[in-house]
Amino acid sequence: MTNVQTVPRDFGFGEDEAMLRDVAKKMLDDRLPLEKLRSLVADSPQPIYEAGERTQWDPDLWSEIVALGWTGLAIGEAQGGSDISLAGIAGMLEEVGKHALPSPLIPTLSASLVLRAAGGKNSNQIMARIAAGATASLALTDERGSWEPNDVPLTGTEDGNVIVLNGTARFVQDAFKADILIASARLGDEIILCAVDIDASGLSLDADHIHDLSRDQASAHFSGVRVEADSLVSREGALVLHAAWPGLLVLVSADLCGASEWLLQTTVEYAKERVQFDRPIGFFQAVKHPLVDAMVEIDRARSLLYNACAEIDAGTQDSERAARMAKSAASDAAAFISDRSVQLHGGIGFTWEYGIHIYFKRNLHNQTLLGDGVYQRKKLADIMIGPIGASQNEMG
Amino acid sequence: MTNVQTVPRDFGFGEDEAMLRDVAKKMLDDRLPLEKLRSLVADSPQPIYEAGERTQWDPDLWSEIVALGWTGLAIGEAQGGSDISLAGIAGMLEEVGKHALPSPLIPTLSASLVLRAAGGKNSNQIMARIAAGATASLALTDERGSWEPNDVPLTGTEDGNVIVLNGTARFVQDAFKADILIASARLGDEIILCAVDIDASGLSLDADHIHDLSRDQASAHFSGVRVEADSLVSREGALVLHAAWPGLLVLVSADLCGASEWLLQTTVEYAKERVQFDRPIGFFQAVKHPLVDAMVEIDRARSLLYNACAEIDAGTQDSERAARMAKSAASDAAAFISDRSVQLHGGIGFTWEYGIHIYFKRNLHNQTLLGDGVYQRKKLADIMIGPIGASQNEMG
Amino acid sequence: MAGRDLTQEQTEYRDYVRAWLLENAPPPPPERLPITPIEVMTVGQRDYLQTWQRKCYDAGLVGADYPTAYGGQGHKGFQSIANREMNRAGVPFLINIVGLSMAAPTILQHGTEAQKQKFIPGCLSGEEIWCQGFSEPTAGSDLANQSTSAVREGDDWIVNGHKVWTSLGHFAKWMILVTRTSKDHKYEGLTYFLCPIEGHSGVSVRPLVKITGETGFNEVFFDNVRIPDAYRLDDVGKGWTVAMTTLLSERGAAEGAGSGGGEGAGAIPKLIELARNTLRFGMLAADEPVTRDAIVQRAIVGEGIRQNARRARVQSLCSHPMRLPLQQKLSGSEYQQDNARLGVEIAGAHSTLYKLDPRAPHAGHWPLAYLNSYGNTIAAGTNEIQRNILGERVLGLPKSK
Amino acid sequence: MAGRDLTQEQTEYRDYVRAWLLENAPPPPPERLPITPIEVMTVGQRDYLQTWQRKCYDAGLVGADYPTAYGGQGHKGFQSIANREMNRAGVPFLINIVGLSMAAPTILQHGTEAQKQKFIPGCLSGEEIWCQGFSEPTAGSDLANQSTSAVREGDDWIVNGHKVWTSLGHFAKWMILVTRTSKDHKYEGLTYFLCPIEGHSGVSVRPLVKITGETGFNEVFFDNVRIPDAYRLDDVGKGWTVAMTTLLSERGAAEGAGSGGGEGAGAIPKLIELARNTLRFGMLAADEPVTRDAIVQRAIVGEGIRQNARRARVQSLCSHPMRLPLQQKLSGSEYQQDNARLGVEIAGAHSTLYKLDPRAPHAGHWPLAYLNSYGNTIAAGTNEIQRNILGERVLGLPKSK
After folding, report:
1. Catalytic one among C250, C255, C263, C288?
2. Which residues of D59-75 are buried (b: 16+ CB within 10 A; e: fewer)?
3. Which residues of A touch B (CB under 8 A)?
4. Does the annotation count C250 as an active-site position?
């Protein structure tokens, strides 16, 4: 994914990509219909919101997903992956979003992208484990919830050729479903990336109590975790993360686009059936026009998403701009359709029984993950207009 | 208007204020109906937009306005004014806005507020002239169009007890209708305010070609204009302007509220009559709901307007906050109803013949005058949240 | 900003209320209180809030303008003062919101002397909690589309049907109930009752769970429920007219019998506090200009709403008597929703945390307030309906239905 | 970003077009050109633009995918390349927009062989300028509500009526004209003609003045205008169907016979340039974060629209064939409007200045572009109608009419 090639006009979304997407759709339609999803994650609010338990997920379904090779999609064939384009992965993840699938898929794909950007023997070995079915997640975020790759959560110290990690990584996605954490730490004036097995001694997880019912999130406490040389992924963490970042943004954006399209279609169907004032409410422009505006926003986000995939797949200079545009548009489109779908469903949309809220909360979580629209636009302004102050000289 | 008193719950809008407003309404309904306004300022675009002439106004009507004493409303009785509350002036100016009256009224009232804030013998003499019918305008803005009172356009130098002014004041409102300019200049490290007769030697006006058809705007070039001691309004210009500024914001906000209410009602009437798809278009929520949203915005702006008047009339510390809120809300409400009134009128709203554009352009001009919503909110953030950087210490 | 040009009497009352609220600030609640009365879930919350309302009532802070014959104080222009002071003092809200803002004003206008004496005192004191029986599964926004039936049988009426969206139903002794007494006319076929709920035979209340996982509103099923004709409010077939009185009271056309308290008032200071303690984009959110602009936008709307309420009492500044009052529900509910949404955005990654999480900013207030805000933009006539009402009644545009 | 996975042939064509545009960049216009073709006012502008279109046509940049029999080049997938390159090169727009985007595609689909041969070549070369006769004083958005009548008389039709909103009418040789041939059916009572305008007896064109003071669109009056039946397009009573073809072509369902050029493409760089040269709040607007955020918001929308056009050609990424094409007019017109509005805001006090004023930023572009932007949000079916069409045709919601 790193060698520059021409960017295909069709985003590189060809037959293979379409087939992967269609397989994903069929499989998730069969195995995770809305009824199943609700009984799985939203049977009753009590365990999660009162007893503070973690939400359920379906390990059997996950085994099938692993068997289908989805965890190896972003991994080279040499490591046992299928090395499909990011455009193909995005297509599959839109279906994942449409089904609000609880799983470590996106964190594992995210870890793969970081490992792939790092390259080298150690990364390849870890990628081989992932391709073989191991799950992973990223531990890159500090307590402030900063999305700057340079704000690393951990500190490392060298002890011979072992590196000792201390500190706490926050907001680790689906940590309780992960076998491996890819963590960033400051070592002297370097930023390093390490792979740590979840059962490593000195590593403990602390579950966050979150709104989203379709994932878990945790703080990962590192106290004297010893990292052997063969688990050191990179000593150039800043470069690696910068290279991988556009891909991470795209994975979340794809999920947002899928979940948002599901909310749109579900609300449209409701608007066709629900009768008020002797007409289906979809007759009324107060319902129809917001749904059209939501569609327009979702479509621009999807188009920006596949453009970003194509730029990243081609390894162009434009990848970061394209990916941040996609995340900004996807986050804002999701916020709008989430809002309208609850509002336009009226009373029933406000009830727990009706599944809307599962998607609403998944979107709300993904909107903020890796930075919301305002944050992406701030970074885009630096790229497109130049850093603040850079224009001074131009004032005639 | 400067001595602190309690702020009346009814904004100080009592019978006198209501009567003034009603008189203004009746008089302008009679003397400046839409037909008259259109033939006056928008008979043909050619003279203004091609030949570059200034738009017409009605000096006879102006004489009546002077006779009614409107130019002396903000002036104390000792100077021959009627010293009415700003709330009363705002009520009258809403009617002025509803009729898009082309006149030097607002610039003259603005000058009065500045003179009143300055106080002193010289100011009182000039206010007496204004109360007797002289018109005035403010020359406080530099080429950058900065709305910071400290960014003065002119420089002064002392020559005995004469002050010599040089420089160019930009964006002087209705300069060609003014007898007196109140100009700000930097003299050493002071900011001074001077009154200059429009025919003073060394002062020349240069008309701006503007979109707004209901006013003129000019650059005032000062080359060696000599200001006698009795025309020096203040040597503490910064303080005076700061004290007067909330009042200036309120005057423009009142005009915006009035013009916006006219646009709302005019568009509502059109929506009741215009039939499409066998129904008056006001039946359709795509027309009805934006008009409701416009009404809601206009009402909040009006309420903030009268609150600002009451705070200023009572001379409270809260005056600037209240006035900037009013200008921000009035500017944004005006932008929205101007937009919707052209759009919802459809083809006819886009034509020159149909008067909407006169109000659209007057609003567009007033929205930016003294700073648009974004600018007011920037100043408000400094007041309400504190200057950028001030919160650092609070971070636990 | 309070206490402007009050009469001597009103000024004394204001000073009395202030002093009383200072001396009688209630103890901390046994458990976290919800943001509004319609989210009251537990008996503990109810008892605490009912005790507080009773205390305010005994002190003359509730029902101040109601006739003494019905348990009020018989004053004029006192209640709005008490409401403002309770808001300023940030004391808990009054739990009997349906009784105070809907039942009492409606009974006062449409009730018989006997009904006024029987029902209003309990509304004011909060001893008798009320709920609202307007919404049905097929009649959410379309109030006139009621199918819950009431059939006359001697001196009684037999009610069968199903109401939803019934806030406080699980604690209510009474319900204001709209029923269909004739299928022949959509509007004239409605009749309005004051219906016993708690322990009344044939009535079953089932709590509904909200998207937050909290309860607080209910479904109520009527299975041959018997209501004496003495509990019918106004004439048979007048239900629509009476219901309009109820909704207009609720939408703030009247100051109501008492309101105030709760968190609503302090949204902006709370947002600023959040911004001062949250890092956003490598700086304090309070220093980040886009965030600052957004907070000030909210503050301007909030101040505008407050000043609307003030201007609504200045007749010469109101072109149409209902123009401002009918905006209250629309503006207020969207104001709260937009505030909460902004809080979620500012909190960033921390907005993912539920109130159980010790690291959740403001004890998890923002995402919870955001989710709950839809209760207010949907209930009592969705905001889409509010816009129709304003367009039709105030602007005079043709009906959209 | 152009020229991805093209065929050998297409790549060569793209390179040819690029080279040609470099070598043949037109001389500066004799007078300021308007922003879009529908604002062309003067003969000087017309002559300049007509010459330019002819030059592009001769070079094979217009009508590239049209059959050679009708004056085209007979290629496949060339036109979109030419359009993109003309956009990138920032050359003037093609003046005959109605002919290229509406008349030609409609005639190609519904015309007789003779009609195709007679009318299409002049559309492509720009020698024969077309205008649109759809809107009437009482039928703005409601196209089917036509009252302009056409009555059969021997081999001719006699037309009487009044059309408005006729861009380019004052320069047009032909009009695509929808008339009523039967009062019995609203839709089936319409018939579509190709009507001579310039110098045709009974036709009078009166220019309308826009809110900018510019002319550019017209009223056209028909007083017993005679049209030979040979100029009728498709069957009597098929006018509605044919008109839908026209509107879908215009709304970009087809790439059209040629388009591009003009200022649209460069809006964001222009905004950034403005921001870099304007002081706002005591700093450069380009350094002011709220302004930066606003500009980037615009840029994201613009890139989204461009990528929509790209995705529209990838069938497996389109759930509904008309979902993206039907958004084009809505999104494009509001995008331009919002850009212009932002430019006006950034220009601040200087936005008050008209193009005549030497101190007006970008020669007065921003306020003028803002005022003119309403032409595009209103014409050819207001954007309110566009939202109905999208809601009904794409989302399948019930018709609002």
Report:
1. C250
2. ebbbbbbbeeebbbbeb
3. 284-286, 289
4. yes
D290 at the C interface (CB within 8 A)? Answer: yes
CB contact D151 to C (< 8 Å): no
Residue A305 makes CB contacts below 8 A (sequence gap 6+) with A90, A250, A253, A254, A257, A326, A330
Chain A contact for C379 (CB, 8 A cutoff): yes
- Find, among B122, B328, B128, B146, the residue nearest to B232 by Cα: B122
Does the beta carbon of D359 lie under 8 angstroms from any beta carbon of chain A? no
Instruction: Using CB atoms, pick whichever of D209, D279, D367 lies closest to residue B351.
Output: D209
Residue type, B250: V
> Residue B276: which of D141, D282, D383 has the nearest Cβ?
D141
Beta bridge partners of D220: D163, D205
Q: Are the CB atoms for A153 and A169 separated by under 8 Å? A: yes
Neighbouring-strand partners of residue C180 = C149, C190
Please classify residue C183 by burial: count the beta carbons closer than 10 Å to its beta carbon, then call 0-12 exposed, 13-18 middle and 19+ buried. exposed
For residue A224, the tally of other CB atoms under 10 A from its CB is 12
Q: Which residues on D lie below 8 Å from B374 (Cβ)?
A: 290-291, 345
All residues at 6 or more sequence positions from B199 whose CB lies less than 8 Å from its CB, including other chains: none
Q: Do B259 and B334 touch, CB atoms closer than 8 A?
A: yes
Both tokens of A104, joined, read 């470590």
Q: Are B333 and B40 in contact (CB under 8 A)?
A: no
pLDDT at B392: 61
Tell me the pTM. Answer: 0.91
Mean pLDDT (whole number) for B3-16: 83
Match 């003034």 to its residue by tokens. B20
Active centre residues of D (catalytic) = 250
Chain centroid offset of residue B154 CA: 22
Half-sphere exposure of C17 (CA within 13 A, CB side): 27
Task: Report which of B82, B79, B54, B57 is spatially closest to residue B67, judged by C-alpha positions.
Answer: B82
Given CA atoms D133, D138, D144, D149 in this order, what sign does their dihedral have? negative
Is 80 exceeded by the pLDDT of residue C251?
A: no
> Within the 84-103 window of chain C, which residues sit less than 8 Å (CB to CB) from chain A?
none
Residue type (1 letter), C165: W
pLDDT digits (tens, 9 = 90+) for D157-166: 999 999 988 8
With an 8 Å Cβ cutoff, are B211 and D384 in contact?
no
pLDDT for position C258? 58
Give residue-wise pLDDT tens across range C107-155: 999 999 999 999 999 999 999 999 999 888 877 667 778 899 999 999 9
What number of residues does chain C have? 401
CB–CB of B380/B328 below 8 Å? yes
Nearest to C276 among B296, B306, B394 (CB): B394
Closest CA to A53 of C356, C349, C362: C356
More confident residue, C258 or B287: B287
Helical spans, DSSP H, in chain A? 15-31, 34-41, 59-67, 86-98, 105-118, 120-131, 237-273, 285-313, 319-345, 356-368, 373-384
Selecting from A209, A287, A335 the residue whose C-beta is nearest the C-beta of C353 gives A209
Q: Angle, nearest 10°, between helix axes B237-273 and B319-345?
A: 30
Token representation of residue B243: 């004290």
- φ, ψ at B177 (rounded to 5°): -105, 0
Kindly provide the ipTM of the predicted complex, given to two decimals: 0.93
Cα separation, D206 vs C119, whole angstroms? 72
Q: Is C161 helix (H, G, I), strand (E, B) or coil?
A: strand
| Pairwise pLDDT comparison (D39 vs B366), residue with the higher score | B366
Q: Is the dihedral of CA D238, D241, D242, D247 positive or negative?
A: positive
Which residues does chain B have within 8 Å of residue A284's beta carbon, measured at their own beta carbons? 285
Specify the 3-state DSSP secondary structure of B179: coil
